[in-house]
Amino acid sequence: NAGVTQTPKFQVLKTGQSMTLQCAQDMNHEYMSWYRQDPGMGLRLIHYSVGAGITDQGEVPNGYNVSRSTTEDFPLRLLSAAPSQTSVYFCASSHVPGSTGNTEAFFGQGTRLTVV
Amino acid sequence: AQSVTQLDSQVPVFEEAPVELRCNYSSSVSVYLFWYVQYPNQGLQLLLKYLSGSTLVKGINGFEAEFNKSQTSFHLRKPSVHISDTAEYFCAVSITGGGNKLTFGTGTQLKVEL
After folding, report:
1. How confident is the model at residue A95 (pLDDT cuts 50, 70, 90)?
2. Partner residue opposite B100 with nearest CB, options A43, A96, A108
3. Is the CB of residue A41 less than 8 Å away from at least one CB of chain B?
């Protein structure tokens, strides 16, 4: 059981370049999300999705796009990278809480992105 | 909106000593509470969670936490730490009825020394 898989693990971009961070999960989770982790700031929510075809913005969405065409995949796109987007990015997935309220999120290993 | 405060950015402790990592939250609605651990260069792993019921929650690796609604706290404790517990610990909340959006604290780096 692979869980949540993120690729690539490391990436260096030049300012203005675009790229896509990949995230895939094999647990049939409806809910997927992207966070960025910066020193002294914890993790902040970028975008999330409650199912295929449904996405919404989180706390820090500017400069990022997402789409959800399948249950398994939730790619994060940087359209024009900026140094302020240097960060570690984490993808997470979970079931949408039902009557049990069980909201455990499973995280990928992270993508360390540097924009120069 | 909800928020999470982890007052201690770093906590040094000797091996086999007890430890408490503090977490306070703010929310106008009921919340679910979580503690996650992040080992170096790894993703986050769930330690324990409070959804409802007993306010004392036991998790993996001998950790436990107590939900205190009146003090809006969810402190993490371990009676005897091991060198392998060295990691960063994050407290997080999600609001009931708010889906699975997590709001994280800024993290506490636990350093266990011999």
Report:
1. confident
2. A96
3. yes
